[in-house]
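dumping this here before i forget
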Amino acid sequence: MTEKYYLGIDIGTYETKGVLVNIKGEVIAQSAKKHEMIVPQSGWAEHRPNEDWWGDFTFVSNELINKSGCNPKDIKAVSASTIGPCMLPVDKDGEPLMNAVLYGVDTRAYKEIDYLNNNIGEEKIFKFNGNALTSQQVGPKILWLKNNRPEIFNKTFKIVNGTAFINSKLTGNYTTDHFSAAFVSPFYDINKQDWSNELINDLIDLEQLPKLVWTDEVIGEVSAKASKETGLAEGTIVSSGTIDAAAEALSVGVTGSGDMMMMYGSTMFFISITDSILSDSRLWYAPWLFKGEHSLMGGLATSGTLTHWFKNNFAKDLQGDDIFIKLAKEAEQSPPGAKGIIFLPYFSGERTPIHDTHAKGSFFGLDLTHNRSDMYRSIFEGIAYGTKHVFDTFKELNYVPRKLYSVGGGTKNKIWSQTTSDIIGLNQILRKTTLGASYGDAFLAAHACGDLKKDDINNWNAVDYEIEAKTDNHDIYSKGYKNFRKLYESTKNLMKEMDD
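structure:
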């Protein structure tokens, strides 16, 4: 009997990664290709769709096939995820009319956000879409396109995100999943779970948006043209795909209500699964990947980025490839509470739950007894306090994770991960395979074509170990968290005055 394979490819901000796996979830081949984020001017962030998205996809797809030596006809299904939400206008031939405008990191549409909020009403938008209108939403960027690039806007046949673009290249069909669509406010009605021009009917025709599907649906087959470019066999099943963070959550076993992913990366990101809509302006909402399920999300603006900042500015005396390991050992020499230092991690403002672009980072409480180890430890504690602030917001909505799955490079940093568990008071579950979104994409491919049930991810990716929350330092961290919250509240007006 011929073995079946499943291919998953994830296109990130700076790199595209792909995996080829078998029915047991065993990795047969891996591939990666780097690309750049283009910043034409302050507040803008772009990708080149044909080069960075489709070009990377075809490179990685061909390399996976070549590395594995498998017959392309034995690859039963393929699925992709991309960064999101993004905005890309394409013409009738599916060709990009400009570079893709990226997710919340691109803030060019700030005037359009104000315009839509003022003309529609912030509360009305929130009730309709379940999210406040921010740079994370696609609608204002479509309005920016009309206002600033009318010649492109008038030629636009479809407006797509990254996954919809890849799917159109593979199959000729324009589709997007409901999870991704929730970020196309004010055009997505969360109650009807459908596109709607109820809030704004004079910007675009709804036919210009991709067809809505659930993430476990088959949306087409690889065309003859795509087959020549990707190396995949013509007729290979293509599943919907989604945004990268959702695919990564699935890859580590986030499958049902009460499950949550906590991702340690350049930022902290949290995805939780709920049975019903839980919507709060301090957090983010979207329908989950599967019909009848929902998700509630949060994210810090800077996390792992801060460790790089500290290394580059305060550890120039350290040499080698293990500088972070050396710094972590130093931090372990500092006692819990970092001798009273309170660190605010708001070096790029803050996302959830305060949504404050004026927020500033700080080390508070320094004296002549403090050293580098105390400051470095306080960074991990400050990030963990910010994480607890998000978790407390979840708790106010009566949501406490039943199982907390952690992923990302920070899980390998013992002091960071253990401090986080101790401060939030929750255990963290770590899986054996931590390949990220591309592994989740491969599973979605197998699930969409009916070969696996969604809970089979537990057979693919077994639990490796668990970080247990300790209560030894509860009093210290409880006091530190209270001071963390007070410090921001006491200085947020000054922070805004500094920007003004």
